[in-house]
Predict the 3D structure of the following.
Amino acid sequence: MTADRVLDFAGHEAVVRPLLRAVRDGRGAHAYLITGPPQTGKSTLARLLAAAHLCPAAEPPCRACPTCRRIAVGTHPDVEVLPPGGLCDESGHDHSRDHSRDIRICQVRRAERLLNLTPFEARARVVIIDPADALNAQSADAFLKTLEEPPGQAVIVLTAVEVSALPETIRSRCRPVTLGLLSPGTIERYLVQARAVPPDEAALLARLSGGRIGWAIAALERPEARAHRTELLDECAALAAGDRVQRLSVAERLAGAFAHNRDEVYAALAHWASWWRDLLLITAGRDNQIINIDRREELTAVAARFDPASVVRALRVLREARRDLESNVNPRLALDAFMLRLPVAAKGGGARRA
């Protein structure tokens, strides 16, 4: 994320502006909890809040000073990001190699130590826990004391896909911030006005984004993001007709990926949900509302092989799989159960269970 992108919050202004105003007026919180679907701007907003608290300008964040620029690119010495598999102070630990899917207690202890140090150059220290739903029970309990009695110069920012994934004791000690999905029109206007994207391309990206402005920006800047979407939707179509062996193989791969990057798995489920939602719209005669408009012909052919009740069941088991993952159910068990319950397209129309 470059410094000039730190205020890319089209559609979220009603959320972001009061937060910045509160910081400028000396009413900023010591802890924030930012929640919302994947790729809606949670990590970007976390860095924005860090800049607002540390920027020395009269109206922070200015986006131009060395403080803002280093926070934007992740090199400021007073801002620590705590991800799964991140650093800790134990010499024998290497969480990048042990495939940790949690933020562990040793990492929390490192964050607590840093928060209690005098800031290196800014007026405060900031710790960003991203994502906070990766805190395991022990690390969440250990961090609770810091949230209850934070050092005077500390600011803590947590992000999570679902607020319910965190203990009430943590949620109640943070200022809540919610980022939702945006309308295609809002995303399209942003792309045209702020990014000079041609209107036809902006309209397509806005529709394909499913309301996730982060995905639209990534697809614009990195062609591989659109290619990855294509791969995920191809896989979803294959799974709709796949056998148990194929499905359980995909479940195993996703469970392994969940250990390193939860948002990647959540994003895959979101793309799959958009595919199944499009099938439901087509079966209801509302194909003008589908998200994946570039796959209309394929979706129409597949929709003929499912009855509406089966598509509704697929959306329900997708939602339950995501809820299980957010509740820290063993990812392999949650994804295996999802795959086994997903309807399978019948050759002659209708659908059957896997």
About this structure: Residues 183-221 form one domain. The CA atoms of residues 323 and 329 lie 9 Å apart.
